[in-house]
Structure formats: C-alpha cells, structure tokens
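Subject: sequence -> structure tokens, single chain

Hey, anyone have a minute? Need the predicted structure for the following. Not urgent.
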Amino acid sequence: MKKIELKHFKSLIAQTRKNKIKFAVYMVLRLIILLVMINSIIKGAYENVFVCILALVLFMIPAFIETNFGISLPTLLEIIIFLFIFAAEILGEIDCYYVKFAHFDTILHTINGFICAAVGFSLVDIFNRNPRIKFKLSPIFLAIVAFCFSMTIGVMWEFFEFGCDMFFHTDMQKDYIINSISSVTLDETHSNTPVIIDNINEVIVNGEKLKLGGYLDIGLIDTMKDLFVNLIGALVFSIIGYFYISSRGKNKLAKSLIPTIEEEDKINTL
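Reply:
Had a minute. Here:
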C-alpha cells in the first residue's frame, strides 16, 4: 500500500515539475507547510498539525486531476490555487490573518469566487467540446453557468460556516461592530415600521457593559460581504471565459486561466 502511495506521489511531483515556475512555487510552499507542521508538533498544537496535513493533501489535487483525468491546468491558474490554499489554511487559520488583517478574508472570498467560476466554466466547456454530446452551448450561456456554479459554491460555504457556528460554537461568520441598527421588531405599534437607533456606543449584556464601542452584529454583514465579493470574482472570470470562447481560444489572458483537455482523442474515446 505504501509503495502505491509513493508511486502516486512521485507521479504528482513529476506532473507538477513540467513547469519550473509552478514547481518552484509548489515546493517552496510545501516546505513552509512542513516546517510549520513540525513546529506545531513540538508545541503540541495538534489542530494546527491537522490543518497542515489538510493543506498538503489539497496541494496534490491539481496534479492528481492532471494525471488521472487528462486535464491540463494552466500554470497561472495552478499557482493561484496553490497560493489560495496556503493563504487560507496556513496564513488564515494558523497565523490568524483572518483576525489580524481586516480585509484578508474578503480577498480570499473574491479569489474563491474566481476559482470556482473557472472550475464551473471548464467542466461545461469540456463537455461542450465533446463530439458525443448532442448540444452546443453559446459563449454567453457558458459564462452564465460558470457564474451560477461559483455562486452556488459560495452559498454552500456560507451554509457550512453558519452550521459550524450554530452547532459547534465557532465563529467562522466573523462579527462586526456597528453603530446603527433599524428593526421592525422594536416597533411597539406592530405596524412594520423600522425603528432606527443611531450613535450606538455601548452595549449591556446580562447587566455587564461590553467594551465594544458599538452594537455587535452576529455574522450577517460578514456573510453578505463574502457573497458579494464572491459575486465579483465569479463575474470577472465569467467575462474572461466569455471572451475566451468568443475568440475561439485565442484570448491570451483567458487561455492562461482555463483548463483544457491534454488530448482531444481522450474525449472521443469516452
């Protein structure tokens, strides 16, 4: 069993090594993760060890796809994926960048929307170019499918964050401090009229004053912000994908971001 896993790992490395830049990024980030994992083991931070192992496994997915499905991932897209995984798991979770830097999570959700749109677009595009498929989709429809696929993944992730916060008392949906609220719940006349409270600078919970400087929003703003920036990332890639199809694959920017089939003959044999 170990020999099979080692052989498969070597295959993944060989696939990644085809491009020197991609291979260099892969190896440098992988080395950093291994060092972080060793440090976490020494400190007894076993949750961080699990995060490192997860990151290493995720790093092998692009090469696994290329090796087993004959799909060629562009160098730029693959590097973006490596950096995204490293930023999300190592910088975000272990180095606490989500808390240290206000817009770090926003940047990652934007990139996530972009990557998911690339995945959705590529899946449909590959089927679209299969001669055995009985339909031919227009460029605008492919762009819409990519956009919808990305937004669906974004919504499902927010469901996951909400579930973790509700059942495991985590704080994946980060809270925000706000100084104004409007709510019909506070309307004593029950006439569905929003009651607006401005200039909130202190909150008392169970008789204890919280040093917040405002009202604590429980996850709503974070969720809507994440979905909005996911929309931006999805929209950007959908536009790139549209021009890629319209130009019959001649658009250089799109070509550097959209996966293709290594050998069209492989599709014909499916």
